[in-house]
Specification:
58% helix; three-stranded antiparallel beta sheet; mainly alpha
Length: 165
């Protein structure tokens, strides 16, 4: 769907139409804030907005029922993309810089936004093992085996082997 630009007056009417979604001319006249426009003025804007594709008409007897075709969210996206392209070189960074400089957004606003969207979890790291340092700092006690004891162990091993055979 191609979206066309709206004048300020057309946008004001569309804001009311987006709230109503589906409506008759009398609904607009009742809901429009003071000063209320003339009925012919409203009819002219309705005709223009139908031609631009923002609303459609359906004839019900002698009157028309109007229905919004372009949601407000789509129009907002269109405007933001146009603004970005025409004034900020399609750069989100330039838009943020501008918003910060004009004090339209604060770092706290962004901090809160990113706190909700991004969860930063620190990586788990294992403590390094220093085997050589451990050996030096905590040497294992080694039994000194005497020659006689070695011979006794060998004899025991030989006896065990003979019993198995």
């Amino acid at each position: 769907m191609k979206i066309n630009h709206l004048t300020a007056a057309e946008e004001n009417f569309m804001k009311l139409f987006w709230k109503l979604e589906s409506f008759y001319l009398k609904d607009i006249m009742e809901q429009h804030p003071e000063p209320k426009p003339h009925q012919n003025t409203v009819s002219t804007y309705l005709k223009i907005l139908v031609e631009k594709g923002y609303i459609t008409t359906q004839k019900e007897g002698r009157i028309f029922k109007y229905t919004v075709v372009v949601p407000s969210e789509e129009y907002r996206k269109f405007l933001l993309k146009e603004l970005s392209h025409n004034f900020f070189n399609d750069s989100g960074k330039e838009i943020l810089d501008f918003l910060f400089n004009e004090k339209l957004i604060s770092q706290d606003d962004l901090k809160n936004y990113f706190d909700l969207k991004i969860e930063i979890v620190p990586a788990k790291t294992e403590e390094p093992k220093f085997e050589y340092a451990e050996e030096i700092l905590n040497p294992k006690k080694v039994k000194k085996v005497k020659a006689k004891d070695k011979e006794k162990e060998k004899d025991k091993d030989k006896k065990k082997k003979k019993k198995k055979d």
